[in-house]
Amino acid sequence: MQDDTEAELITRSRDNDTEAFGVLVDRYKTALYHHCFTLVRNEDTAEDIAQETFIAAYYALSKFNPEKES
Q1: How many CB atoms lie within 10 A of CB 16?
Q2: Domain residue limits, the chain
Q3: What is the reported pLDDT for 66?
Q4: Which distant-in-sequence residues (6+ apart) come within 8 Å of 36 by Cβ?
Q5: Cα(21)–Cα(45) distance, integer angstroms
């Protein structure tokens, strides 16, 4: 599953595969945290923003259209 494309992992996540969503989170959590920290310069706030971003992404999975991705 680690070698799956983003589209494959998102599609599986949309179908309630929590392991696939976990792979996406693991794949992007460090980069997202660093980006958030760069913006806010506070560790706790950066962690909160990153977590809220993943929650929002999870709830937006139903909007993902793999045909639009290239």
Answers
A1: 9
A2: 6-61
A3: 73
A4: 45, 46, 47, 49, 50, 53
A5: 23
Residues 6+ apart with CB under 8 A from 30: none
Token reading at 47 = 């962690």
Residue pLDDT, tens place only, 25-69: 999 999 999 999 999 999 999 999 999 999 999 999 988 887 776
Angle formed by the axes of helices 18-40 and 43-59, nearest 10°: 140
**HSE-up (13 A, CA, CB side) for residue 25:** 17
The two tokens of residue 61 are 């999975």
- The rounded distance, in Å, linking the Cα atoms of 29 and 33 is 6
Tokens matching residue 32:
């997202």
